[in-house]
Amino acid sequence: GRGRTDVTVLVLGLDNSGKTTLLAALRPPDPRPHDPRPHAAPTVGHSVDHFTSGGVSFSAWDVSGAARHRALWERHYRAAHAIIFVVDSADHLRLVVAREELELLVSHPDMCGRRLPLLVLANKSDAPHALAPMQVAAALGLERITDKPWHICASCALSGAGLADGVAWLARQVR
Ligand code: GDP
């Protein structure tokens, strides 16, 4: 690892993959109910969330999957220490689009060749007909990503299942 304890993580993925929901699930309970922190409401541009795992404090930039916002989120690439890429495992048709997005991301001049840990969340694992993580990995062509340590795990952002394990992997990569 690199001994980092403050980590900026980009959260990317197509719209409707579950980014907003999983960031809400990772968010620590708000100790000040009358002073709620701003919510990561339907993603436009970006918003920042915070969570911790394994002694690492994460600042998560939820960057929209909408192509029209690409210029916005590309500005954050250079500041990122890690990436979470969220996929709807039950949306078989759009896996092809997700693969194209991921390829654009990892081949971007500000990303290519950097050893940023990449956590892929095969989200909506609870949905009927959800693909298993290995099938999602194959559909995304993850085996072709050789310049970054990557890890895929199944998650359900609604229940939080799988999120802690995935984020713990990220924490181990950066520490
Ligand atoms: P975003 O556009 O990537 O931020 O996606 P959202 O977090 O807004 O989620 C899109 C929709 O998928 C919402 O209706 C969520 O309730 C639903 N959703 C998110 N995660 C899961 C999941 O793990 N399982 C199921 N069944 N639905 C999910």
UniProtKB/TrEMBL annotation:
Belongs to the small GTPase superfamily. Arf family. It is found in: Membrane. This is ADP-ribosylation factor-like protein 6. Mg(2+) binds at residues 20, 43. GTP binds at residues 13-20, 65, 123-126.
